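Residues pack. Consider this:
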Amino acid sequence: MSGGATDLTGPLSTLLGEHYGADVEVTGASVVTAGARRVNAVFEASIDGGARELVLTLVPAGEEILNPISAEAAVIELAERAGVRVPHVELASDDPAALGGPFMITSFVAGETVPRRVLRLVAERGHGATVVEQLGESLARLHAIPMEDAPAGVRRVELADPAEASLIALREKLDELPASRPVLELGMRWLARHRPPVPDRTSIVHVDARNGNIVVDDDGLAAILDWEIATAGGDPMQDLAWTAVRMWRFRNDELEIGGMAGRDSLIAGYARAGGVYDADRFEWWKVAETLRWAVGLATQAEAFLDGRVPNIVMAASGRRVSELEWDLLMLITPRDGSTPTRTVA
């Protein structure tokens, strides 16, 4: 493969040949993204003379795995059967022997994934509201999957109250930072005071569905990507609120959902597919998710500074923390002299 990755065309040809029971030749492979944990590469597979474009997701041996690849693939397959827009899983394995790490092979979905390109495309096509409605529909279908169908091995919320579990996890992460961050502590106190009731039902949640983890084409939403932290037993409003965090608008701040459309479009699509929107829980999770990402970026910056992860992406993360702290203050600041239960930013 090009892009500095080890040449895996031979092993891929062998793996896919065994999987399909046919002669397979892999060509034209190139790395398209290489993050801190995973490598994604697009390649062409000729299967008995018929060409197919596929995507390899590989976790190098020794890297952190948030969900076993087999569990992640099973969630994607379950979501696909429920009508969620996802790539089709061709093959997945937790065994590092074949390719040097756990891997998954999926169909290639054409379209834009880079957020600014996504925003240019929706501006040209005028279909931002359509994309956001389709995102709402897909999330509603995901949330409708019975919890008993959640694959074995997938991450799970261990408490009956997802909000309580989130606060415990945030507290642990904050305490691990080398210095106190007063704005984040203020946000924690706000979240504790305004914790919502336990939702009527919990669900499988994607946890990272947003502009940057979707494929958009000329017709709208083509697929939701990056299911590596999908979790069973979550609050459905967490998924909806995460799409609305200002960081994912890429300067289109007036359009709350990924810089593409307003919240009404997300709610309309969610309701059309049977989802039940709860405004107060949405607002709580929007604050919680803004704080979660601030803590996450601060943690990434520390991993660079202490030498654990010498990756420039990790180093750059630190400069965004203050921006998220500002967002957090804007979300929890009263608009009329009283403590807000709903926010507008």
Observations:
- Residues 1-6, 339-344 have pLDDT under 50 and may be disordered.
- Residues 9-107 form a domain with the Phosphorylase Kinase; domain 1 fold (CATH 3.30.200.20).
